[in-house]
Amino acid sequence: MSIDWEPLWELVDSNQRFVLSSHVNPDADALGSELGMAGILEGLGKSVVIANPSSGPANLAFLDPENRCHKLGQGVTQKEVLDTDVHIVLDTSAWQQLQAVGKILKKSTAKKAVIDHHVSSDDLGGIELKDTECDATGSLVYQFAASRNRPITESMATALYTAIATDTGWFRFPATGAQTMRTAAALIDAGAQPALVYQQLYERRSLARTRLWGVVLGRVELAFDGRLGYTHVELKDFDQTGAAPADTEELVNECLKIEGTEAAFIAVEQRNSLIKFSFRSRTSMDVAAVAEQFGGGGHKQAAGAKVKGPLSDALTKVMAVMTSEFTDESPPNNPSQ
Predict the structure, then answer these.
(1) Which residue range(s) make up the domain with 287?
(2) Quick one: 137 and 92 in the same domain?
(3) Are 238 and 273 part of one and the same domain?
(4) pLDDT band at 337 (very low <50, low <70, confident <90, very high)
(5) Cis amide leading into 174 (omega within 30)
(6) 62-104 per-position pLDDT tens digit
(7) Predicted confidence (pLDDT) per residue in 188-205, tens digit
(8) pLDDT at 329
């Protein structure tokens, strides 16, 4: 799907001040896309503020050595977010994912734009530059720069490469295509170093994270003749292992590595009495549709939602939906085979 970038270029050409935002608990695609877009805009002499509903995880700090990505209320005020010409939202099209930033966006008079590749979508009130077949929002930001041959610095290349590499499961998910690899190659030419990015992401696991994974993987269960793998994280697990909520990232994928599984989920107990669910699929099962039943969303094969606790009740509700999914459809074809 080809995007016409001219409407966004018209906004960029005719305005000076920009605010960039992404979803709650920003991942590498969110932060990398923001930093890449900030580099494009600042290369044109624009002023840029990055304001998110929550801070990024510690393991992604290497992407932002200058601490450009702020949590609203910590390093950037509501007034600063409102006082802008253009507000660009990246890597989400959902009000629920924007939380406090979304409240500001709803009352802001700034022009608005959305750059996203997720299936789930709300009308955020601005021009929408969306490709649900694209591998990552980072790829869309690169396409935007390439549409006018804008230069990519080494730091921008690292941010965008990390965005794409992580959202494609290090180039193994079905959305990975020839264009993905061409974009990755261009970013390597611009200075991204895959070995160093991989080391920063996957070879710095803390002892606390390792202990947490041991506990949680020990709870993995299978259902529906082994087609579904799932597990959960309790609040006490964090206290007992010394781990942080961000240490649960990627854990759900371990459930999907079990032979015979077609879908997986992990439930993570939150201190606000909500239960965070992450869903994965490697078949035609649409887990975004599952997540949407609980007010969440995402991709067809990777999605998330938050369900009211307690944990046992939330698990019962989600398993009821998963039962319907597995009962109503015949075993799907597995694209990974």
Answers:
(1) 207-328
(2) yes
(3) yes
(4) very low
(5) no
(6) 999 999 999 999 999 999 999 999 999 999 999 989 999 999 9
(7) 999 999 999 999 999 988
(8) 55
User: Which residue reads 């995007």 in tokens?
Assistant: 3
Domain boundary among 170, 202, 234: 202
Between CA 258 and CA 262 the distance in angstroms is 9
Confidence of residue 249 (pLDDT cuts 50, 70, 90): confident
Domain count, the chain: 2
We report the CATH number of the domain holding residue 129 as 3.90.1640.10
CATH number at residue 228: 3.10.310.30
* Burial (CB count <10 Å: 0-12, 13-18, 19+), residue 195: exposed
Asked whether residue 335 is assigned to any structural domain, the reply reads no
Residue type, 116: D
Query: How would you label 239-273 residue by residue, b for 16+ Cβ within 10 Å and e otherwise?
Result: eebebebebbbebbebbbeeeebbbbbbbbbeeee
Q: Are 90 and 27 in contact (CB under 8 A)?
A: no
